[in-house]
Amino acid sequence: MSDGSGNGQLEGKVAVITGAASGMGLATAERFVAEGAKVVIADFNADAGRAAAEALGPAARFTRCDVSVEDDVAAAVALATDAFGRLDIMFNNAGIGGAFGPITEIEVDHWDTTFAVLVRGVFLGTKHAARVLIDQGEGGSIINTASVAGLGGGAGPQAYSAAKAAVVNLTTTTALELAPHSIRVNAICPGVIFTPLMHGGDVDDAEAMVSELQPLPKRGEGADIAGAALWLAGDDSAFVSGQSIAVDGALLAAGPRIFGRLKNTRNVHRMVGMAHGTTGQAPVARRL
After folding, report:
1. Cβ contact 251:233 at 8 Å
2. What is the pLDDT of residues 36-51, one digit of tens each?
3. What pairs with residue 16 in β-bridges?
4. Where are the domains of the chain?
5. In a 3-state reduction of DSSP, which class is residue 134?
6. Which residues are catalytic?
7. Would strands 271-275 and 98-100 be described as parallel, antiparallel, or unpaired?
8. Which of 29, 39, 128, 226 might form a disulfide with 20, Cβ 3.0–4.6 angstroms?
9. CATH, domain range 14-276
C-alpha cells in the first residue's frame, strides 16, 4: 500500500485494469495502489474481483466486466471517472487461454470467442479510455497485454497466438493515431509467468519445463509484469510509445518451444475445445 508520503510513482493517478481479479492483473493492481494510484478492477469473475477490491481498500473499486461487451467496458471507464474524478491509465490485460486443438477441428465459436476477449477487448478498452483521455487533454498511458506467442511460433495455440499478434499490431497503429493527444500506447509481451492461467495448478511441471527452456533462471511472476506496467504507466517512460516489450526471461531470444511441453498442453493434438482461464467458467474439451 502507499506509505502515505505522497511520493508514490503514480500518486494522484487513476487506472482501469481489466482481468485484475487474479494473476498479472491483480499483481499490477496491488503495485499501482502501493504507488499511490486509485484503481478500478474490471473482471468477469465477480467473486474474485470483489475480494480483490475489498483487500485493496478505499483506493479500489470493482465492476464485473466482460471485455468483449462494449457496455461493460464503457461502464468500467465510467466508474473510474465517477468514483475518482479522472482517468490516467488503461491496462487492457484481461485474457483467456482460448480455443485449442488441431486447426482442422477447432470450433468456429471457440475461435470467435478467443478473438472477442483478446482482441475486441483491447479495442474496446482503447476506444473508451481514449475518449476520456482526449477530453481531459492531459495525455495518458494505454497498456495492452500481448504475449511472446504473438511475436513468433511455438509459444501458444493458433487462435491465442494470432490474437496476440493482432494486439501487437493494434498497439502500433493506435500509438500513431493517439500520439498527437500525448496518449502513449504500449504492449507487454509476457513469457512464462506463474499464474493460475499458465500452470493450471501443476506448478512443479511448469517449473521443470521452464528451467529447461528459459535462459534466465528466475521464475516469472505477476510482480514482474506489474513492474513493467508501472514503468509504462509512469513518467519515466514518457518518451516510449508504440512498443511491444517482451518480459520473458530471454525466452524469445532462445526461441520459444513452450506449447506442447507444459503438462496441460501435451495432449492438445488429441483434444479440441476452449479454455476460459480464470473467469470461473469451466473449460470445454473433446477427445479426438
Report:
1. no
2. 999 999 999 999 999 9
3. 40, 90
4. 14-276
5. helix
6. 160
7. antiparallel
8. 29
9. 3.40.50.720
